[in-house]
Amino acid sequence: VVLGDISGEELGSESDEDNRPAIDNAYAIARMRNEKLTEIIQTKGQSETHPVMTPYDEFAGFELWSKPTAGPGTVDPGSPNNYVREAFKRGMQFERQAGFSINPFKYGVVGGGDIHTSIVSHEEYAHSGEHNLKSATPTQRLLESESGEPSRIEQGTAGLSCVWAEENTRESIYDAMERKETWATSGPRIKVRIFGGYGYTEEMLNSRDWDKDGYANGVPMGGDLPTPSAEGEKPVFMIWAHKGPNSGNLDRIQMVKGWVDEAGKTHELITNVVWSDYPEVRTRSTGVSATDTDNEVIATYDSLPATGTAHVDIAEASYDNDMAGSRKLKTIWTDENFDKSLSAFYYLRVLEIPTPRWSTYDAKALDIIPPLDFPATIQERAWTSPIWYTPQDARG
After folding, report:
1. Residue 154: which of 10, 367, 357, 339 has the closest Cα?
2. What proportions of the chain, in percent to the nearest 5, are helix, strand and coil?
3. Is the CA virtual torsion 356, 360, 362, 364 positive or negative?
4. Are 215 and 209 in contact (CB under 8 A)?
5. What is d(CA 150, CA 270) in angstroms, rounded to the nearest whole number?
């Protein structure tokens, strides 16, 4: 597993410390043989993306880590080598280069802890800190600090690694990790599934055995879409998510697509594919384009009115699921802009309604107001491993 949270600019790096090419085909093959998964979330923040690189992504600012593990300075927010989405895109660029037979960054995703207490502290309401001696109590976490130590307010709860396995055995779980049928969450036990193929229907999605239809007619998260058999055929995705038992209702599910064009440039699509219309109906905006310095389109995205925080009581560190969101969301989504000649990936980002962050629970315990320089609420989330598409001429 690759740890991407503070990778030291190694996650998607193209050269070593002596500026020599770090990746050739032999390296790419070895990397994919030994590193199937990458960590997208842990106590030191998320590694999906950053607002500096994706300012059009309204949810890119989630749980960012700005300090090194120790000592002064900051983590470079503008380095694409530190973030998973950029690695996904770079990997497709490598695969299309002469001499390459494989994508070196074709990862599945998992979550982790890096919490040095032997406690899985993944729930906001039960956060126990990263170190027993330094951050074990609300007082230590909110009111004390030490020179040269990482910021405690930036530290989050642990993420979770999740798998779809046939049975609860070591062999079955490791098989699921090997085929990258994994997803990560920021802590809640959100369940999420995605299947990609060319023949899914609403009838299949609404059937009792929809997951069996998913496997029979396509591929799950971590899988590879085959080349379409008919001209003009477009991939269709069956999408489903269910809230965790001890967390907020679901707000929306987003599809994140990345691809490489004929010139080798990367692009993104972020679209809200399904969302909760409770407590009020929301209308999605039409797609907006983001351009680079050459005025070329690099991303397309839409937006949806925010749920708001009327269901959250900051002073009491509580929330009411009966006031917002949905327990379950599902939909069928078709990539209407699919081009069978271009490499692409597709992954889901599932967002909960806002709920109190651990620092708000700690403030309630100390009978103080929550820190003013950090959000009082958090939108917990899940990320799936991508489904990949590789054109026939780019396959090794």
Report:
1. 357
2. 20, 25, 55
3. negative
4. no
5. 32
Q: How far is it, in rounded angstroms, from Cα 236 to Cα 252? A: 19
**Rounded Cα–Cα distance for residues 114 and 377 (Å):** 22
Question: Which tokens go with 294?
Answer: 């050459």
Strands 37-42 and 45-46: antiparallel
Q: What is the per-residue DSSP string for 233-271?
A: ---EEEEEEE--TTSPPEEEEEEEEEEE-TTS-EEEEEE
Residue 104: the pLDDT is 94
Tell whether pTM > 0.85: yes
Token pair listed for 375: 């959000």
CA distance 323 to 219: 36
* Residue corresponding to tokens 């939108």: 379
Q: Are the beta carbons of 188 and 124 closer than 8 angstroms?
A: no
Rounded to whole angstroms, how far apart are CA atoms 382 and 390? 25
- Beta-carbon contacts of residue 71 (< 8 Å; ≥ 6 apart): 148
**Two structure tokens written together for 382:** 């899940």
Strand, coil or helix: what is 63? coil
Specify the amino acid at residue 383. W
**Which range, of 30-34, 105-109, 191-195, 389-393, averages the lowest pLDDT?**
389-393
Contact 352, 243 (CB under 8 A): yes
Q: Which backbone phi and psi does 323 adopt, to 5 degrees?
A: -100, -10
For position 150, what pLDDT does the model report?
67
- Measured distance between the N- and C-terminal CA atoms of the chain, rounded to whole angstroms: 23
Continuous segment of H or E residues that includes residue 182: strand 182-185
- The CA distance from 5 to 123, in Å, is 19
Asked if pLDDT for residue 21 goes beyond 70, the answer is no
Nearest-5° Cα angle at 76, 74 to 80: 155
d(CA 216, CA 98): 35
d(CA 118, CA 123): 15
| Cα–Cα dist 228/197, whole Å | 9
Alpha helices in 135-188 (DSSP H): 138-143, 170-178
